[in-house]
Amino acid sequence: MCFYNGGKGCVLNLRDSLTLSISLSLSLSLSLSLSLSLSLAFCSQDIRNTVGNIPMEWYKDYPHIGYDLDGKKIFKPIRNKDELDEFLDKMENPDYWRTIHDKMTGTDVCLSDEQVDLVHRLQQGKFGDVNFNEYEPAIDFFSNEVMIHPVTNRPADKRSFIPSLIEKEKASPPALPPPVFTSTHLHLPGWSPSMRSEAAFAFAARNASGLGLDESCFEQLDSNLLASVGKLVHAIKMGWIKPRRPKETAPQYYDLWAKEDPNAILGRHKMHIPAPKMRLPGHEESYNPPPEYLLTDEERQVWEQQDPDERKLSFLPQKYLSLRAVPAFSRFIQERFERCLDLYLCPRQRKMRVNVNPEDLIPKLPRPRDLQPFPTLQSLVYHGHSSLIRSISISPSGQWLVSGSDDCTVRFWEVCTTRCLKIMEVGGPVKSVAWNPAPSISLVAVSYGENVLLVNPGLGDRLICSATDQLISSYEEPEEVKDQQVQWAVPEGKAQEQGQRLILTHPKAVKQVSWHGRGDYLACVMPDDGSSLQVVIHQVSRRRTQNPFHRNKGAVQCVSFHPSRPYFLVATQRYVRVYNLIKQELTKKLMANCKWISSMAVHPGGDNVICGSYDCRLAWFDLDLSTKPYKVLRHHKKALRGVAYHKHYPLFASGSDDGTVIVCHGMVYNDLLQNPLIVPVKVLKGHIITHDLGVLDVAFHPTQPWVFSSGADGTVRLFT
């Protein structure tokens, strides 16, 4: 386009740029040719290696270095030079400094004098060609004369014919002097009344500004038009009408924190977020509030004990006889300062709200009726105890039930008839009972105070009962008796007739007893935070006691044996530690994320553990997944006292001080990639809360989908 403007400066600039581009292109081509010639070996014109532009390091581990045009391998030359040969060659060979190694052919190439000179010229920043003169006169490709024909025959675009906005402003004609209106303009036949009035206004403006007018035009104006023109002239002179009103430069003030309407200044800013408004004062802030807004003495004490963040009101409502008696507000400056901090320090961010159906956020759980069977209603109630029942246990056959109470008795029940078959009195409140899980042994462990009784109830198959007595009586004391921390004794007389077979006396009170799956080992818990003797394991067949831990980390709450592996689970207040009894080492440490663990149960498969806590939580652990809970359930409103798994059905239950037993469906899949399915299915009610205690223990029937619960109301209830 510069050739059509006829300016020589533009042509000269283009000539200089062409000269510069030609010189650059020549230097670039020469440098490229030099690099290509160096990389492809100067001495041979035939490029034998056809691997292409790839790193030659790829062939360092192969005997060949590439392929020729026929596809045959090009083997590397035999190079047996080591560092010593390289040094000797460097000292003796006069052409060593000009020898380079060609990676494409694997040979050494000796550079000629012309090639060395070319390298030196390029290093000095000169042109590669010796005969090239960079200062030769530039070739005038285009003449200085403006030609008729364009350089290209490309048709012009449509936009080149339409002026842009800037061109419109530049090409707008200069302001012309205002026309002089005469009578001929005001009485043209095509003029409308509005055009006549505009002409009259122009008349008046010119007259008010002192410009000379043709007086002959006033002679032919009608009287009405002259009157309106005179009024307009007077209004303009007085300043009431401003024909050319200047733009207002006064600053505009507006409320920055106001809730703007769409027509306001800040209303047009889409990303503006107004600050939240302060709450308007209510009746409680009045100097004479209604009586129901005044706090009583008890409410005042509660208000003073609360944290400032938890109080509903930041002040105490007070009553004054008159407005004159109201003192100054003591927190006025502090409240204003906090409000200023909220205004300029509180970050506000606009977040896009996603319209999501709330029902879509709820996980798709199966219907409870599809997860049957599970206990749904209360079937039987076992009455007899006069105090709270702390522990219950079921026989392996599911026919008998044992319960221990604070009324210092242990009762044996028949499950189907609720008949109490046997009552055994002990010397203190019963803390825990546990039926031996081995079906070939009829033993029940009962803990009260510092003693643990091993009782043969004599129920069920007589052969099993007699075999159990024979197993215990067949014990022979070893020649060397070692001192043990627990004393083993055989009861006599009335205690023997009641079924007591062994009495184990511990140094401290026993809180819990737990059997191993095979029925020969019994673990006892004696919680004491400062002692190393908190857990002991007894072997009944050898009447031997051992302390598995030299030092306990925290107060032990409960223990349990793994159902299939040689693992021992110890629950302290906040952690569950899994120990390997064979390797005698800590395997895992589970973090329950609760304040105080109360109970624990192990899944029959052995890969999942549930823990109940006093802060209303039930934590499900997947031992193969993580040391943190896979699921935390907060269905209970008060502390959990007992948890239990079913041996065959995918069910687990939890009992709480709120008097309810919640049964959940907990399916554990064989596929390790699929997480367990946990669905609460039923809330069972029936126990009466006594002394702020509800359900103290839960246990499942070994074969049926039934659950037993014992409560502080002195009853055992069966839900089926």
Automatic annotation (TrEMBL):
InterPro entries reported in the protein's UniProt record: BOP1/Erb1, BOP1_N_dom, WD40/YVTN_repeat-like_dom_sf, WD40_repeat_CS, WD40_repeat_dom_sf, WD40_rpt
GO MF annotation list: ribonucleoprotein complex binding
Repeat positions for WD: 382-423, 688-720
One GO BP: maturation of LSU-rRNA from tricistronic rRNA transcript (SSU-rRNA, 5.8S rRNA, LSU-rRNA)
Description of how the protein assembles with itself and partners: Component of the PeBoW complex, composed of BOP1, PES1 and WDR12. The complex is held together by BOP1, which interacts with PES1 via its N-terminal domain and with WDR12 via a high-affinity interaction between the seven-bladed beta-propeller domains of the 2 proteins. The NOP7 complex associates with the 66S pre-ribosome. The PeBoW complex associates with DDX27, BOP1 interacts directly with DDX27.
Keyword annotations of the record: Nucleus, Repeat, Ribosome biogenesis, rRNA processing, WD repeat
Descriptive protein name: Ribosome biogenesis protein BOP1
Entry superkingdom: Eukaryota
Start and end residues of each BOP1 N-terminal domain: 59-375
SUPFAM superfamilies: WD40 repeat-like
Family: Belongs to the WD repeat BOP1/ERB1 family.
The UniProt record lists the keyword rRNA processing: yes
Phylogenetic lineage: Eukaryota, Metazoa, Chordata, Craniata, Vertebrata
Function description: Component of the PeBoW complex, which is required for maturation of 28S and 5.8S ribosomal RNAs and formation of the 60S ribosome.
HAMAP family: BOP1
A GO cellular component annotation in the UniProt record: PeBoW complex
Keyword NADP on entry: no
UniProt cross-references to PANTHER family, sorted A to Z: RIBOSOME BIOGENESIS PROTEIN BOP1, RIBOSOME BIOGENESIS PROTEIN BOP1 BLOCK OF PROLIFERATION 1 PROTEIN
Species: Electrophorus voltai
Location of this chain's protein in the cell: Nucleus, Nucleolus; Nucleus, Nucleoplasm
Gene3D superfamilies: YVTN repeat-like/Quinoprotein amine dehydrogenase
Chief location: nucleus
